[in-house]
Amino acid sequence: MQSVNGLVGHGALLLALPFIALGIIAVPVAVNRGRRDWLEIGYGAVYANFALMTAAALAMISALVTHDFSVSYVAQVGSRETPLFYTIISLWGALEGSILFWAWVLSFYGMTVVALNKSRVGNLVPYAAMTLLCISLFFAILLVGPANPFGIVSPVPQNGPGPNPLLQNHILMAVHPPLLYLGYVGMSVPFAFAVGAVLSGEAEHNDWIKVTRTWTMASWGFLSAAIIAGMWWSYEVLGWGGYWAWDPVENASFLPWLTATAFLHSAMVQERRGMLRVWNLNLVVGTFVLTILGTFLTRSGIISSVHAFTTGTIGYYFLAFITIVLIAGGVIVAGSSDKLRSRGRLDSAASRETVFLLNNLFLTGFMLTVLVGTLFPLVAEAIRGVKVSVGGPFYNRMTLPMIAALLFLMGVGPALPWKIASTAELKRKLIPPAAGAVLLAAVALVAGIHDPYGVLVFAFVGYAATANFREFSIGAGARRAAHDESWPTAFVRLVEGNRRRYGGYIAHFGVFFVALGVAMSSTLRTEREATLQRGMTMQIAGRTLRLQDIWGREEPQRQVVGATLEILNGNRVIGTLEPRMNFYRTQQEPVPTPDVRSGVLGDLYLNLMAFRPDGSSATIRAIYQPLVPWIWFGGGVVVFGAIVGGWPTARRRRAPARVPVPTPPSPPPAREPEYAA
Amino acid sequence: MNWRRAGIAAVLVIPVVFVFSRGMKTDPREIPSPLPGNPAPGFALAVFAPGQPPLERPIGDTVRLADLKGRVVVLNFWASWCLACRDEHQGLSAVARDYTGKPVQFVGSLYQDTPGNGTAWIAEMGGQSYPSVNDPKALTAIDYGLYGVPETFFIAQDGKIARKITGPAPPAVLKHIIDSLLTTASP
Hints:
A: alpha+beta; Tick-borne Encephalitis virus Glycoprotein, domain 1; six-stranded antiparallel β-sheet; B: alpha/beta
């Protein structure tokens, strides 16, 4: 007997299929026959898809909250003891729910794309909507087939096991997955526009690049935030004191970020100079392919990881889908490459476009390195039948030179003009930032970094940060002189005047913070482990830790054992930390909850490793890592930069300062061929 | 459209798909286990659910692996909170019944659960044909290096672990393994 939740949810998913299929058929009919009414049907299907996916998702949330164990997904991840908050977010805590959430986010993007762009002339948007519906179709098929979250469980169990303990242990679980989906799924939109541009013949113009860049910027902002939140989660939950392990799934989120970053830069070259048109198409399609590849890796059960859920036949569906996407992407890019020959050409090596080219070279090199490392075990097993693993040393050795080069370029690029820079300009722009490089390299050496790459990263960050800061200070200084403004006003007006440009520089600063945080915390980490009885102390990084208490507590879904430690600076108590261990009944291994005391300069990180059942002693691992909070802060700055740079410009024209002049009505923009020509 | 280039791009997809499809055939979670081929860790656990005639054992009776030499032992770890255990339950019970009278012993071992929950679950699922034992503190599960529930171990007549299945055990696979163990040892 199916419950109301199951009935509504499953019904909505079944109903979505014919709507999606109808929409996919309607668009080509509308375009080829010039039937505007069919286009309305196509767009209607996009809205219907969103409405039905919303209904299905809400039915699932309702089932989770009401502990409706007749719904298979709830029986799999729900339990009466799980707190409400974690019950709701377990929507994305296992395979079927995460696919449902994915389809929901995708349908939301489809609806937004149509709602915001449907007045646009030409066939770009209809074909983009069709492409998004095709992707939706795949996920809808999964949801009524191998990943049906609304399966019927009979007899109805009284209770369930609850979510995976790792996924119900920290509040960031509510943040990281939705952000990741918004970023990951969002990359479907630029892809849809790319397909639309090729099918509608608009790929030869630069117009589609503008709208694609805005969407990429939004998705890129979400993806950046998601990656940082994922690092933070790993740091706060897994208890090893690190935040990045080159795990295949971390890599999967990072790969499309690299190509999207490359695109955000190279798109400017196309807009300005009409160059790199095939390359940009490659990046947009490649980014989407990488998101699907990442999903395939994590959802097909092909690799093992925290993110890989138990699977059945779903892997083969993904394999079929990724095959179609690869072929379609390859055909689109290769097939249209003739028409997209470059219009402009490089005037000089000393120009911003050259730096963007190098930036793209390193970013894609970075991406290929990570891709090779991630896929190598699969290739080795397929060809030689051996199990191998690619670890951190490979990635560190291969990527550090590229990271250093990219940091350096982040200083050179903003300083150079388009087309060609004179020797005087080069000297004026490129030499002063060297002072910043010397300063930060000295800081690194004084702080005790001996690793050459660590010092190099500091030096290049110093160089690039100075160069980027000078863009702000020189620009704001010019405004001050011209408009008699105060420094803050001049600063804000400067950014407002060219948000894309200065948003980009703000994002650069975020990257600098992340780079310093990573360089410092990975080279100057100190670690101590000690077994303490009550009242005993241990030393780390100039601080004394004293074990006060070992305690236990029973919670509905778990048992918690914790240790309370005082932090002493000399004889003065400056704080307490309570690392804990959580025992969930569904898992043999306890899940740790490390406790972290963050300061501007670094983190003191305590993890409870073991304890005597009689409470007489506890083993504590203490880690001191400098500048870790800078990574999280830098992530925030990157996102802020993306918001500044990507927020859609209001349509109104700003009147020149102090002299209000009525804006003349702008003539209707000259456009591409009328609809359905 | 340049179809030649498009065709080349499409052909380039083949090796990628080949690698992925090969990857699909191997289970990344099949952690090479040192157990198969080695003597099974001994256990002595008390029955909490008797099972049904003719396979029943009285409640409180101790099942000792040492006493089961000469029989094929199918040791299935399960729990009432485990959804996948529901999937395999019917099949396990039926296959156990099929081997009545043969030198095969099915044992269910309750993992991280209470006998009360276990008994209620068995009743809800319509009974279990073979006995289940309780594994307090999951010590036996630890000895067997349990990856998760359900997990099924096949112990040959000589007391060595022959195979293990992680996840629900399909009846056909169960029968195939049991049959092969019975035939190899019979001559």
